[in-house]
Amino acid sequence: MGVLSHIRVLDLSRVLAGPWCTQMLADLGADVIKIERPEQGDDTRGWGPPFISRTPGEDQGESTYFLGANRGKRSVTLNIADIQGQRIIRELISGCDVLIENFKVGTLARYGLDYESLRPLNSRLVYCSITGFGQDGPYADKAGYDFMIQGLGGLMSITGEAENTPGAGPQKVGVAMADMVTGLYATSAIQAALIGRERTGEGQYIDMALFDCQVAVLANQAMAYLVGNDVPIRMGNAHPNIVPYQVFATRDSHVILAVGNDIQFARFCVLASCAELADDERFARNQDRVRNRVELVAKLTQIMAGKSTAQWLEQLESEGIPCGRINRIDEALNDPQVAHRKMRVSAQHASLGEMELLSSPMKLSDTPPQVSRAPPLLGEHTEEVLSQLLNYSQEQIQQLRFDQVI
């Protein structure tokens, strides 16, 4: 039994931020009922290729994007723009602990499905809205997509090669970082509200914004401006506050050298036969290395190019100096540490059969997360939920299909 096995979540979200949150809740045992548009479903069901099907090369099938964010859930197709669909949501609410949605501000109020409308039906409901910019403010009515938020929220200004270097220019992160970070914050906020409910007996409303979350994770870069009035810039793979802490080219590829303190730097210099650098007043302390970054990196670039990546890794690791190779996705997923930590799991999919998925990184000793279900087919659990939770008869369900409500 998962730690959240007593919690039922009604998931009206789509794309990534909301589904990332509800996937985490499902990993922890919550019963997540994903509400999707009839025939179309979550937008990401159509985001491809790549799609996967039982027939290799077939252009139809399940979107790998959708599969990556929806494990452990039940899918119900429901037209919430229809008055009968709205009635079903209200009926489900009485048996739910959490509702998550990411519609544009004001959309669900038009359907009578906003927090103020649903609260009288279930005062214990924790209602979480996820939007690009929040429920208020000058940008509240704007659509907010991850790419836009990474740009507007400052992340792209510090991501990418430095000015006046080959390939210079702002870059987004290779995954939808603003979406996923918002999903993580939303998961934490929801669980905090559920804990608070144990004390007060009442649920509450949660207003999550991608823009807020992106700004929040600027971390040390934001503090450089807030406290020091220093505007961070793009530095490629270099670190603004630590040197040497970046990628270096080796004789055959690349290696990450992540020296975190002066003792590690001194050990590195001995290992690399450049002990004089550790005694040089320009480089002895980290703050001096940061100030004299250009000179030191130029020297280290020549030194690091003298050996292969394998040689450097063996020697650096033997001395406890933080370092690492740069893996492709396939190399990362086949790393022995990934296997040992069981970060790849199998689940039975309704049409694809047994398939591999990523597992949750949360390791709880007594109630570990589990992948209870593969990502669902569109509407796979519609009849199950309507009959089991709402006691709908087959005749009622068939009528809803005829009326194109489900």
If you had to describe this structure to a student in words, what would you say it looks like?
- The chain has 406 residues and is of the alpha/beta class.
- It folds into 2 domains: 8-216 and 336-402, 3-Layer(aba) Sandwich (Rossmann fold), CATH 3.40.50; 245-325, formyl-coa transferase, domain 3 (2-Layer Sandwich), CATH 3.30.1540.10.
- Helices cover 38% and strands 15% of the residues.
- The chain contains 18 helices and 13 strands.
- The protein has helices at 17-27, 64-67, 83-93, 107-110, 115-118, 146-152, 177-200, 210-216, 219-228, 262-271, 275-279, 286-291, 293-304, 309-318, 329-333, 336-340, 382-390, 394-402, and strands spanning 8-12, 31-36, 51-52, 62-63, 73-77, 98-101, 126-131, 205-209, 245-249, 254-258, 323-324, 344-349, 353-358.
- Strands 5-2-1-6-7-8 form a 6-stranded parallel sheet, with helices on both faces. A 3-stranded antiparallel sheet has the order 9-10-11, with helices on one face. A two-stranded antiparallel sheet has the order 3-4.
- Helix 1 (17-27) links the parallel strand 1 (8-12) and strand 2.
- Helix 1 (17-27) packs across helix 7 and helix 7 packs across helix 8 (210-216).
- The longest helix has 24 residues, at 177-200.
- The radius of gyration is 25 Å and the shape is elongated.
- The relative contact order is 0.14.
- The model has no long low-confidence stretch (mean pLDDT 95).
